[in-house]
Amino acid sequence: MPTRGTLGVLAVTGLLGSARAESDSQTDLLGPREVAVGEAMRGGATGSSAIGLNPAGLPLNRELVFEGGYGYRGSDSASIVGVSACDSTNPMPGCFFYDYASASPEIGGASGSRTTHVAGIALSRLFVPRVLIGATTKYYSFKSDLMGETSASGFVFDLGATVRVTEMVNLGVSAQNLWASEESPEFPRAIGWGFHARPIPILALGFDMKWKLEGEDRKARYGGGAELVLRSGNSLEVPIRAGGLRDGDTDTTYLSGGLGLAGLRWGLDIAARRRVVGGDETMVMASMRFFGPRMASPGLGFE
Asked: DSSP character for 49?
């Protein structure tokens, strides 16, 4: 599942306003594939999925991908546009990415606006056989005219590791915003883990949990999901995705789903997520991928 890219507009879950006012952060760099399966890809994140979940997963496949997309949520007119490019065909796989998010929420009867720019690079490599490590460096600029929110900018850093237990099962752990040149509540420190399993080639299952490391509310955010890939001949795939997500901090629950269509040189993904407990908002997103060279996925030894 590859990256965001330079051709098109990118969809990520960063649509959802401030973490203090909403259940999701405007700075979560997730795309439609991750959202559709309840964000449960920390153990198998590749391409652009690795940017927001676990940079260590980049070497799990070998391909060059450009991706772009757009997402929208009507409740606060939140939208995000972004681009990225990931290359895992070299000895040190990496991604370049940029995201722009904006929202116009109403909090306490007062309306305002907030915008976020995030740009950076994610890198990973094989540490020892079956163990991958990765890191992401992000520069952010957050601006808001809402009461109680402070504009800020600076660098933040993520770390991650992926363990290939078997050919079918991966475990992943990652820490987001672990170090910051300027701390901001919009980029809280958090740590998460997850597993990703592929019992048969056309079916993937995942489960993830995540906790904030600061602030008053530190209940878990956890989700799970599945992806079934239908194939037409040797050149066309149709992934069907579904998942659920529970956020203990805000006492909210979501159901999500999505579809994809992928050929040898391109891919299209769409997803929607509906809050079913704690509100009734809906988010929609879509992304387009363009592939360069693609090689067979590496084995456990990564020879």
From this structure: H
In a domain, 258, yes or no: yes
Judge whether 301 lies within some domain: no
Q: What is the pLDDT of residues 110-124, one digit of tens each?
A: 778 989 999 999 999
Looking at the DSSP assignment, which residues form a beta bridge with residue 260?
A: 269
| Per-residue model confidence (pLDDT) at position 209 | 96
How many Å apart are CA 105 and CA 291, to the nearest integer? 37
Confidence of residue 301 (pLDDT cuts 50, 70, 90): low
- Print the domain residue range for 52: 13-104+114-295
CATH number for the domain spanning 29: value is 2.40.160.40
User: Phi and psi at residue 228, in whole multiples of 5°?
Assistant: -115, 125
Please say if the pLDDT value at position 299 is more than 70. Answer: yes
Helix (H, G, I), strand (E, B) or coil at 152: strand
pTM for the whole structure: 0.86
Domain total for the chain? 1
- By DSSP bridging, strand 203-212 and strand 190-200 are antiparallel
On whether residue 37 sits in a domain, the answer given is yes
Whether 147 maps to a domain, the answer reads: yes
Q: Amino acid identity, residue 230?
A: L
